Amino acid sequence: MNSDQVLQTIQNENISFIDFWFVDIFGELHNVGMPSYAIDENSFVNGLEKLDASSIVGFKSVNNSDMILMPDPNTFKILPNDYDPGNRKNARIFCDLYDGSTNKESRYTRDSRGIAFKASEKLKEFGLTHTNWGPEIEFFVFDAINVYPSPYAATHSGGGSGYSIESKESPWAKGNVSTAIDIKEGYYPSQPKDTLNGFRKDVCEDLYNYFGIKIEAEHHEVATSGQCEINLVYDEMITMADNVIAVKNLVKVKAKRKNKVATFMPKPIFGDNASAMHTHQSLWNENRNVMYDKDDDVAQMSQTGRYYVGGILSHASALCAISNPTTNSYKRLVPGFEAPVNVCWGLANRSTAIRVPMYNRNQEKSKRIEYRVPDPTANIYLLEAALLLAGLDGIKNKIDPGDPVEENVYKLSTEKKREYNIGTLPVSLKGALDSLSSDSNFLIDIFTKDFLAAYSDLKYKEYTAFAQTPTAWEVSMYADA
Description:
The structure is a single chain. By secondary structure, this protein is an alpha+beta fold. It folds into two domains: about 5-110, Roll (Ubiquitin-like (UB roll)), CATH 3.10.20.70; about 130-480, 2-Layer Sandwich (Creatine Kinase, Chain A, domain 2), CATH 3.30.590.10. It has helices at about 5-10, 40-45, 110-120, 150-155, 195-210, 235-255, 305-315, 315-325, 330, 380-395, 415-420, 430-440, 440-445, 450-465, 470-480, and strands spanning about 15-25, 30-35, 50, 65-70, 75-80, 90-100, 130-140, 145-150, 160-165, 215-220, 225-230, 235, 260-265, 280-285, 290, 340-345, 345, 355, 370, 425. The strands form four sheets. Strands 7, 10, 11, 12, 13, 14, 15, 17, 18 and 19 form a ten-stranded mixed beta sheet that branches. Strands 1, 2, 3, 4, 5 and 6 form a six-stranded mixed beta sheet that branches. The protein has a two-stranded antiparallel sheet with strand order 8-9. A hairpin with a 5-residue loop joins strand 1 and strand 2 (about 30-35). It is globular and about 70 Å long. It starts with a helix and ends with a helix.
């Protein structure tokens, strides 16, 4: 849509309010609503003078905080009724962030959507027109989460702390014989054990009918207690990032309406599988998939595609600061739970960090790589931008990833991993941030030193805060020592 079409649709559909969406540097969604009669052509030309950036974590200081929201008319969508159970009809528009004027040069350097856009512009230097992205979004939907004795105590611990998860599917719940799913036994169960079958379908229908987001598949995932997955049909870079934000928000809104709790926290259940966001990606020049080479006997992967893989693997540790940006992320990245911890690639091999799907040969359209490291707490705009820049760095510097690993990497000995030159990912958020500090040159041109410094500073503080908090496990283990 253009702005004229948006204004006409607002009138024709009797839209009451427009919600203007944008994300902070961590990918958290923010929103300001305006009545439709307050929106006109000037709103799209000069933007909205509505943002106090000092109130958004990681943005600006109070002495220089005025910013402009620039609506992107192409993202106009009418919202499902779950967003407003009254009789109002609402719509949403994503916004770009500008520094007090609407000149192109003044786009805010800490605008995640802007960073993704700048990264996509780099494709032209490599003779590429666009990239396609297809995330697999995993999450949990619980009946309830109880924090003891209070949410405050959970972060300060002085009064003791703990939490419990309620789910009709959990093996620890009483009286749920017909719906109980044991630890690690939740992959593709049928009803009645899959209690969220209808919930996922409701989400997918609204994603398509209201947001125009096409779904490849939905299903229950491996963990107990309501682990779900929604796979999105591939799309171009910015569109897909917008779509992921919409998916995550709709899941939370629908869960709330049903008095449930949706979480994209990677590892909420000790001893069970965690949530990932495996990210499929491919490179294109118009209608030609640049990653595809029909004459390659091994993976039908072009040399350009191999260099792209090499770039991501060579920067994998630094990428973790963006692809796995929370302390909880590293409770997922441990052996034994199908999460990748080894830096290597393989064909149809889910034990490697990068997998080249091999369902069918001679299929140019579907040739892609799947990066299996990210989790759903990642800011999707930054994730796509960082993966693209790492891959392009591999192409630029001809970084060969070596031969694909065909064995189960989880079962390889230390000696064998050394022989195959297989590295390991960081084991903590601090380790990832340290890696980013020493390996950020491939990002600086687009992310800027200012953004990386602000992002890292906040994440180091987050790590320190949680590192200083005693856990219930530590008390039980060491209190009598």
